[in-house]
Amino acid sequence: MKKLFLGFLAVAAVTFTSCSDDNDTNSVPTTRDLTLDITGLENLGSDYKYEGWVIVNGAPVSTGVFSVDDSGNLSQTFFSVESNVLASATTFVLSIEPTNDPDPAPADTKILAGDFSSNSANVSSTGIVGDFANATGKYILATPTDGEDNNEFSGVWFLDLTSGSPTVGLTLPTLSAGWKYEGWAVINGTPVSTGTFTAADMADDNAATSTFKGDMGNGPGYPGEDYIQNAPMGLTFPTDLKGSTIVVSVEPDPDNSPSPFTLKPLAHLVPSDANHHDTLIMGAGPVAAISGTVTR
Prior knowledge:
By secondary structure, this protein is mainly β. The protein has one helix and 20 strands.
């Protein structure tokens, strides 16, 4: 996995001395606890883990790894770190890393960050993943890959037809490296992806490879999906999306989960009286940011 760190071009080697007697080369460095108070993180499964980092003299130093259970509880909230390292730290960052990770540097998928003020840092996803305060969304129900006027309530496309011609339906910030958007239709409680994307004015990443679409091409050049065939277990395609929930989430890249990630800046319950090809307006999603406090 390619590694970056907030514009830093290289990870410098940093040598730390003990806070105890500088003349005693056999002394053990003193340590102190770094405490995490963070809610909203989700279980990453067995393939990935969370890893904390402090920035010292412009370089990241790992503070340790942990997992999160299905209830959002951290497997560990106290981490023993060399005292002089914590005293010199300016920033805390939390990243998502492969469980088997030979690279000592942070991955692109950084989910929280914040600067220390005295002995605490207020950390948030807003500044490091994206700021979704002004995110807006529009979509239509239609199935352009299934022929004309066939099963029109069985597809969702993130575009705006208000003017009579398709225009961009999503207003979203550019994401930091390591993240992608993903559209979803939650059908009878089962989330089914429309595909991942980084730009709202282009077809999504699975436009040419989707197994759900019909046989009439890839559809318009915007994120979206026709649920026509090859339904997941428990569902039947074509379907009717009225009463389903349409979601835009922010996903780590790479991502091994078949469900939406915890960051969901936009969502909308499709009205029972919705008409196909009408432009529907999304509202704020359930989670636009994750935040917490780190204390040293």
